[in-house]
Amino acid sequence: MDQQKPAPHPETLRGALRIPRWEFIALCAALMAVNALAVDVMLPGLQEIGASLGVENENHRQYVIPAYIFGFGVAQLFFGPLSDRFGRRPPLVAGLIVYIVAAAAAAVAPTFALLLACRLVQGVGAAATRVIAVSIVRDTFEGRRMAEVMSLIFMVFMAVPIVAPSVGQFVMLFASWHFIFVVMAAGALAVLGWMWLRLPETLHPEYRRPFTLDAVLKGFAIVLMNRVALCYTLASTFIFAAMFGFITSSQQIYVGLYGVGELFPLIFAGMAGVIAVSNFANSRLVGRIGMRRLSHSALLAFLTISLIWLALSLAGPIPLWLFIIIYCCAMVPFAMLGSNFNALAMEPLGAIAGTASSVLGFMQTFVGGVFGTAIGQAYDGTVMPLAASFCLVTAAALAAVLVAERGRLFQAHNPPVTPGGFSE
Prior knowledge:
By secondary structure, the protein is mostly helical.
């Protein structure tokens, strides 16, 4: 087994960025937001897409989202090792170009099958943005500082789900669903131009790995044999499955079950806003409390709220106002899980950040997407299957965290971060 090279000190890399810290965070958030745009902007158009392309089963309309997630998840396994070999910039540019071309092709797809194929390819291109954005952050920061930066990135990233459904709804007031894909392509093109002009290469030449089958497999083995990295990756996968299951069935829940009509984008935006605010709170708290204490507490809170939600669902139909309150309460701890679990999974693997990010991304999006699709397909006209699924996946995430920490929760491993400093 190859020995891992020591990761370069983050302060050195940070000084080499040559762009302001706020712009670095905003650019990484924009790269990740390309993925959210590809999912959330089209939620208001699912019904029209199905009607236009002859999809009779309402649950089958959801496949527009899993098709994208499938390509997005699998392709991450390739972009990670590629970025460890050729640096971060070249694969990122290639991925964005594929995304733009596929989105443009989807805009003129004449059949549902061809639309799904375009979405698959679009997901392949988007994989580069997710893998490489996380790799760039790991190249530059570590420990609690990485968790803080990831929280800020997620906060900006969550602005997209706040506005994306409204953008999709607005587009459909004046045009057909085809133009939603034109919006996706235009957004990715803008991010490509920004990245091309402003983002430097963050992977030092001495830390590049060969792109051979043996080297790639050894890199994957390093990730999978690290108990902490693997278990936190599994935990984040289960949490992602819960969110994905909700997203795929959200249009049916709000429009079909609760009949909110055109208020759907507004309600969806409000819930995304809760996640954004919680991510900002996480960025302020993680340096003082620590990733483990904060995320472990959030996980237990998320499980408790999910159990309450399930009990209420079993007692009878939940009115809209109560469903919104419960879900918003659940999103507060949820937001504190994503960035912290990502940072905890990546922390031991700085020397192979690209490969590690690809495994993490594959598990979260592909495996989590498969579970999430099953959750979405279980929709039966009530929110009970969704509540039960939240309980199951959160319990599984707790089990994975317990294995990672050898049964001991809330144990801080990093000292507090001082203002302007870096954790060890």
